[in-house]
Amino acid sequence: MKTIYNAAHRAHQAEHEFFRGEKVAAFEKVERADWVLRAVETAKLDDVLQPKSFDDACIERVHSPRYLSFLRRAHAEYQSLGGTGDAFPSVWPIRGMRSDALPENFAARMGLFSFDSGTPLTSGSWAAARAGADCALTGADLLSSGERAAFVLTRPPGHHAGSDFFGGYCFLNNAAIAAQRLLDLGCKRVAILDVDYHHGNGTQEIFYGRDDVLFVSIHGDPITEYPFFLGHADECGAGDGVGFNLNLPLPAGASVASWFAALETGLQRVRGYAPDALIVSLGVDTFEGDPISHFSLKTSDYPKLGALIESLGLPTLFVLEGGYAVAEIGDNVVGVLRGFEAR
Amino acid sequence: MKTIYNAAHRAHQAEHEFFRGEKVAAFEKVERADWVLRAVETAKLDDVLQPKSFDDACIERVHSPRYLSFLRRAHAEYQSLGGTGDAFPSVWPIRGMRSDALPENFAARMGLFSFDSGTPLTSGSWAAARAGADCALTGADLLSSGERAAFVLTRPPGHHAGSDFFGGYCFLNNAAIAAQRLLDLGCKRVAILDVDYHHGNGTQEIFYGRDDVLFVSIHGDPITEYPFFLGHADECGAGDGVGFNLNLPLPAGASVASWFAALETGLQRVRGYAPDALIVSLGVDTFEGDPISHFSLKTSDYPKLGALIESLGLPTLFVLEGGYAVAEIGDNVVGVLRGFEAR
Questions:
Q1: Which of A124, A224, B192, B274 is most deeply buried (CB count within 10 A of its CB)?
Q2: Beta bridge partners of residue A158, listed in sequence order
Q3: Minimal CA–CA distance to B247: which of B292, B301, B203, B306?
Q4: What is the number of H-type helices and E-type strands within chain A?
Q5: Burial of B327 (0-12, 13-18, 19+ CB in 10 A)
Q6: Domains defined for chain B, CATH in brackets
Q7: Segment B135-150 mean pLDDT
Q8: Residue contact B205–A96, C-beta within 8 A
Q9: From CA B40, how far away is CA B46, in angstroms rounded?
Q10: What number of H helices and E strands is found in chain B?
Q11: Are B306 and B318 in contact (CB under 8 A)?
Q12: How far is A270 from chain B (nearest CA, A)?
């Protein structure tokens, strides 16, 4: 399968993040994509393509104009106000507060549009995220033009970004943008399978009220795992979307066998939905060596994951999400892709 | 009038805070109360009383049990997990996320129960806030037993704390706790007049659906001023509370004349409500020299404020809120109290 990659991701290079209250080196770093690209090239997977350029209108199908307008200029505005380094939120609207009135104050807008202090807004965040969205859109177009599968090699990741907020290292929801693009190009139903360790809260939020996108996620139980405030098993969708959201949380420390059992449940649901295409939010922080996650898949498990996904027989777009064991991320991601191709 | 004071406030001593994204020395500091106490004593206002001890049930009339349960043990739990210094939130539930499921993860609960990173949770925050609540309850009892007025000299302040969250330097909402106590002791209607520079979002949230407490607030327009996400003029109450919430936002930089004009509007509303008692959330960060606020009252304006409040002819409990021009806070607060007494 072809890989879509844009070196513009390098523009997003965080100095540090706040992780569970502590200031630490950023986990989501440039080297992640380097390792994956090297593994793709070593495996001679297929061509590595540059993305095409897409209009912002394709992104506004998923993200609110007010959020995009903020994000596009946020770091420049921060700098113009004397801010140095990366920007972090410091005040946010809790229950009972309003999100409808747009504050003029910059710090207030930072907080209005984000949900953690683990996502540094850098001078290059917009450029990198925007280039990543172009990769996702290009991947959707490849599927639409008949490719069986493609791999969107992007960072920062996307699945925590909601319709109008960033967080969890994510700014633009690449998987959601690609899903919407597939619908706009003629698909009637698209399924998103999120196998990242962390619940894809942004993707769920974006499609929660809709039946044209099925969202299935296997992840660490939010009762103890990030993003904490979404991803429970009783979240089944709302309105037209009831029945089209399936969360399969597993306790931190769950076995590989229980992970694959949950995957089978998820794949069954995808089969029952009979979508026209599948998007895989491909995080490999399920890996036993991941520094911030607590599942225990081995590198040898990832080809099996790829083969099981292939067994659905669907046009499939893989979109890179998390995975912070940098030295192994390439082998694990490419393991999935080769498992898919080998079957 | 008598002052109720408890030296236990000294237990809350923050190292620093995050102010609009920058790490700075804490504005809400022990010396604030020292200066006010000295001014009270110099002015020979009346006795300075220790608070009585009240049962937690009096506080649970206003704050949720789950929040109190968290707050009581939060810093000890933080330390037991290896946390050092003061604790700050790092991830919180944005729109579309859930606040009903209580996470086991400590960092998640920090974020669930707070709305900014400007409110350091210290080893002594609970002890200080709890002692402050006792002061507020003692003040309410003084009014109930026939005193015309009393002054609750506490810190940390309270008016930003909601039914189940902290923020804005506030942990327990002293004004709300006192208002509820007055109702529980027989008042039919209590009015709260909030003259702090910042909107009393916590007080508003607590009483927003009720008609037995009128909330009137004069403050910097949240479009540019903290707490940003509440305090607009169109917030009039909900359900039974419709018509019992009056916000009088003024633009940052508003003149003293326009401030007193807004006060007159607020006083008229209080008169129309004909409450049995009045609570004044007394912040003096309306002062021209305040380091984080943008009104321009002079020290000589505060006695006039006190006299106008007195003209309502109501049993009146003054509860200390903000004011960060430390050297002047005592004169400004006592100016209000003497203005009330002198009329």
A1: B192
A2: none
A3: B203
A4: 10, 10
A5: exposed
A6: 2-342 (3.40.800.20)
A7: 98
A8: yes
A9: 8
A10: 10, 10
A11: no
A12: 24
d(C-alpha A332, C-alpha B4), whole Å: 64
- Give the whole-angstrom CA distance, residue B166 versus residue B121: 9
| Residues within 8 A of B (CB atoms), A 129-188 only | 162, 164-165, 167
Q: What is the CA radius of gyration of chain A?
A: 18
A2-46 pLDDT, tens digit each: 999 999 999 999 988 887 767 889 999 999 999 999 999 999 999
**DSSP secondary structure string, B263-277?**
HHHHHHHHHHH--SE
What count of Cα atoms within 13 Å lies in the side-chain half-sphere of residue A192? 41
CA dist., res. A231 & res. A246, Å (int): 9
CB pairs under 8 A between A and B: 166
- Please, what sign has the CA dihedral across residues B254, B258, B259, B265? negative
Task: Output the CA torsion A308→A309→A310→A312 (10° steps).
Answer: 100
For residue B83, give the H/E element and its range: none
Kindly state the tokens that stand for A310.
Answer: 């292939």
Q: pLDDT by residue (tens digit) across A47-88?
A: 999 999 999 999 999 999 999 999 999 999 999 999 999 999
Which residue's structure tokens are 């004044």? Answer: B280
Q: Please report, for residues B11, B105, B112, B114, the alpha-carbon distance to residue B171 in angstroms, rounded to integers and kept in the order given.
A: 14, 20, 14, 9
Tokens 């707490």 belong to B227
The amino acid occupying position B66 is R
The dihedral of CA A109, B199, B289, B23: what is its sign?
negative
Tokens 């995220």, located at residue: A129
Cross-strand pairs, A4: A49, A152
Of B92, B103, B165, nearest to A115 by CB-CB distance is: B92
Stated pTM of the model: 0.96
Residue type, A65: P
For residue B216 the two structure tokens come to 């009137």
Mean pLDDT of chain A: 97
DSSP line for B190-234: EEEEE-SSS--HHHHHHHTT-SSEEEEEEEE-TTTSTT-SS--TT
Q: Please, are residues A146 and A123 in contact by the beta-carbon 8 Å criterion? A: no
Distance CA A114, CA A94 (A): 12
CA angle, B123 then B125 then B129, to 5°: 155
CA–CA dist B40, B33 (Å, integer) = 10
The residue type found at B106 is F
**A323/B199 Cα distance (integer angstroms):** 43
Taken in order B309, B312, B313, B316, is the CA torsion positive or negative? negative
Interface of A with B in 2-41 (CB under 8 A): 18-21
Count, residues in chain A = 343
Cα A19 to chain centroid, rounded? 19
Residue B250 Cα distances to B160, B225, B261, B282, B300, angstroms: 18, 10, 11, 17, 21
B194 touches chain A (CB under 8 A): no
B76-129 residue pLDDT tens:
999 999 999 999 999 999 999 999 999 999 999 999 999 999 999 999 999 999
Which residue is closest to B165 within chain A, CA to CA? A94
- Structure tokens given for A123: 């001078």
N residues, chain B: 343
